[in-house]
Structures are given as C-alpha cells and as structure tokens.
Hints:
Elements: E1 3-7, E2 10-12, E3 18-25, E4 32-39, E5 46-52, E6 58-60, E7 68-73, E8 78-83, E9 92-100, E10 112-113, E11 117-121
Parallel strand pairs: 2-11
Antiparallel strand pairs: 1-3, 3-8, 4-5, 4-9, 5-6, 7-8, 9-10, 9-11
Amino acid sequence: xxxxxxxxxxxxxxxGSLRLSCAASxxxxxxxxxxxxxxAPGKExxxxxxxxxxxxxxxxxxxxxxRFTISQDNAKNTVxxxxxxxxxxxxxxxxxxARRGVCTPYxxxxxxxxxxxxxxxx
Length: 122
C-alpha cells in the first residue's frame, strides 16, 4: 500500500513563499502520477499540480501557472510544491495524492492521499 505524508504548510503574508513536501512510501512503481490538490472551506477539492514519476512531465492548474512549481526527488521518494507569490485565494488545505497511470486533474481518479497540510495566506 502507498503512504503519503505532507509537511511544510503554514501561515504567510500575501506575496510570500512556502514549500510543501510529500514523502511517499510503500511503492516503487515508475508508472505513478503524483499530484497536489487543495480544498478551501466550502469549496470542492481541486487539482493544483501533477507530475509523472517517470520522466518528470509536469501539469498545472491555470490559477497557479507561473507561481507554483512541482518537482520530485525519486531517490528520496519525495514530491515538492514550491509556492511563490502567494495570494489569499491560495488559502486551503493542501493534499498530496498518488495514482497509477495518467495524471488527470480529477481527485476521484487518485487512490492514495495524505492527511493534508494547511496553507493560510493573509
């Protein structure tokens, strides 16, 4: 089974930066897609960024393009989300997720989830 543990959330002023980390264990399949999703109070969970474990191709939501960067260190089984130029509307619980296969933007397609880390931008 796959276990995901996020860290790095916190409170920051608008325009600031945070880096989230997602440590993965329990699998070594190169066919996995790793994703970051977020959910604000009263809103549906939405895709933020995804990365193919094999090859490192990245995909982003339009709302974060140019500000967020997803990356990975396969040797450490860790995925990162560097968030720059943060805005109050980025405030949400951020979740790391994994699935085998195509990197879709749909939360329901992802089988494995971390517990989430809160990001608050004021």
